[in-house]
């Protein structure tokens, strides 16, 4: 299969369709307008298409110097295990290298750690500092 990689965000409709297909935002915390605004505020993003169908997406939030966070890596279920996720990650990581970013963090869904470990990521040490706060 030949896919088209774009260094840009997809259209609102394409993003919403992929997001719904994957089943994210199950809690309905944010509207699709808010989610789309969030991805538009990203430092860098990549979209992968099969023809006119968005099949993969990922983005980076960063200050462009040292704080870098990869998030929202998603692959259409019909295209999983076909190398799309790896292409998304390789493209995101290549951009980090190009910009001389040395420390890359990410958050992944439960059970997806082995995928990211294959790319060189390691889980945080259980004793490592790090906290979070979630307003309900």
Descriptive notes:
The protein is an alpha+beta fold. Helices cover 30% and strands 22% of the residues. It is built from four helices and five strands; from the N terminus they run E-H-H-E-E-E-H-E-H. A hairpin with a 5-residue loop joins strand 3 (53-62) and strand 4. The longest helix has 15 residues, at 84-98.
- What is the CA–CA distance across the termini? 43 Å
Report the structural category: alpha+beta
* Binned strand content: 15-25%
Shape: globular
Major sheet description: 5 strands, mixed
For the residues shown, what is the average pLDDT?
A: 91
Strand order of the largest sheet: 1-2-3-4-5
The number of distinct helices, counting runs of at least 4 residues, comes to 4
Task: Estimate the helix proportion, in percent.
Answer: 25-40%
Radius of gyration: 15 Å
Q: Could you state the order of secondary-structure elements as H and E?
A: EHHEEEHEH
Total DSSP E strands: 5
Contiguous runs where pLDDT drops below 50 for at least 5 residues: none
Task: Give the topology, please.
Blueprint: E1 4-6, H1 12-22, H2 32-40, E2 44-50, E3 53-62, E4 68-75, H3 84-98, E5 105-106, H4 113-118
Parallel strand pairs: 4-5
Antiparallel strand pairs: 1-2, 2-3, 3-4
Question: What key attributes describe this structure?
Answer:
single chain, alpha+beta, 4 helices, 30% helix, 22% strand, globular
State the gist of this model.
With 136 residues, the protein is of the alpha+beta class. It has four helices and five strands, in the order βααβββαβα.
């Amino acid at each position: 299969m030949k896919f088209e990689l774009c260094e840009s965000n997809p259209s609102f409709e394409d993003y919403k369709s992929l997001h719904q297909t994957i089943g994210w935002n199950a809690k309905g915390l944010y509207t699709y307008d808010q989610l789309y605004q969030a991805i538009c505020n990203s430092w860098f993003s990549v979209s992968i298409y099969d023809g006119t169908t968005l099949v993969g997406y990922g983005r980076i939030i960063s200050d462009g110097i040292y704080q870098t966070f990869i998030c929202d890596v998603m692959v259409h279920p019909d295209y999983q295990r076909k190398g799309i996720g790896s292409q998304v990650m390789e493209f995101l990581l290549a951009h980090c290298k190009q910009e001389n970013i040395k420390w890359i963090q990410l958050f992944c869904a439960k059970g997806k750690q082995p995928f990211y470990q294959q790319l060189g990521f390691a889980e945080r040490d259980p004793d490592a500092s790090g906290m979070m706060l979630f307003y309900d």
